[in-house]
Amino acid sequence: VITVSPEITEISSDISINEGGNVSLTCIATGRPDPTITWRHISPKAVGFVSEDEYLEITGITREQSGEYECSASNDVAAPVVQRVKVTVNYPPYISDAKSTGVPVGQKGILLCEASAVPSADFQWYKDDKRLAEGQKGLKVENKAFFSRLTFFNVSEQDYGNYTCVASNQLGNTNASMILYG
């Protein structure tokens, strides 16, 4: 009896999918005896195998199911062969944190807007209905992947009021209001 160690001959490419979509991954392997194929999700929360054959089907994928999926082919002839596929799940922004802040006149004030999104959100700030531009006198806007910070270097009475942070990506947008008060 000739034994042949397992070899993965075909595996799905990395994929990017919108939340709620369906994913179908394939992992084909050869070897003698025929290798056993298993898929597992490389994640701290993952338990056991997600599939015990060549195909892995995920319907209505959620953001928690994003990450790397590992296909393993084993037949006891040699160590199992493993390959990974990266699954990126896109979802619209949601704002996780936006607090109102009290700052005395003449002090430095900061409004912070935190949002989670894939791809990363773009941020815009409004006071009442007027968009705040970067480089406006006495203001600084810093946008990072998961938050935007609006800094007032020297708060005046005119700065007090209602501010809105808008977070958007290709899949949608959301906003949150907060107040800068004295």
Automatic annotation (TrEMBL):
Q: Which domain of life is it from?
A: Eukaryota
Residues covered by the Ig-like domain: 6-88, 92-181
UniProt keyword terms in alphabetical order? Cell adhesion, Cell membrane, Disulfide bond, Glycoprotein, GPI-anchor, Immunoglobulin domain, Lipoprotein, Membrane, Repeat, Signal
Please state the protein's primary subcellular location.
Answer: membrane
Gene Ontology BP terms: cell adhesion
Membrane topology annotation:
Lipid-anchor; GPI-anchor
What is any one of the record's Gene Ontology cellular component terms?
side of membrane
Localization annotation: Cell membrane
**Family according to the record:** Belongs to the immunoglobulin superfamily. IgLON family.
Listed PANTHER family: IGLON FAMILY OF IMMUNOGLOBULIN SUPERFAMILY-RELATED (PTHR42757), NEUROTRIMIN (PTHR42757:SF9)
Q: What is this protein called?
A: Protein CEPU-1
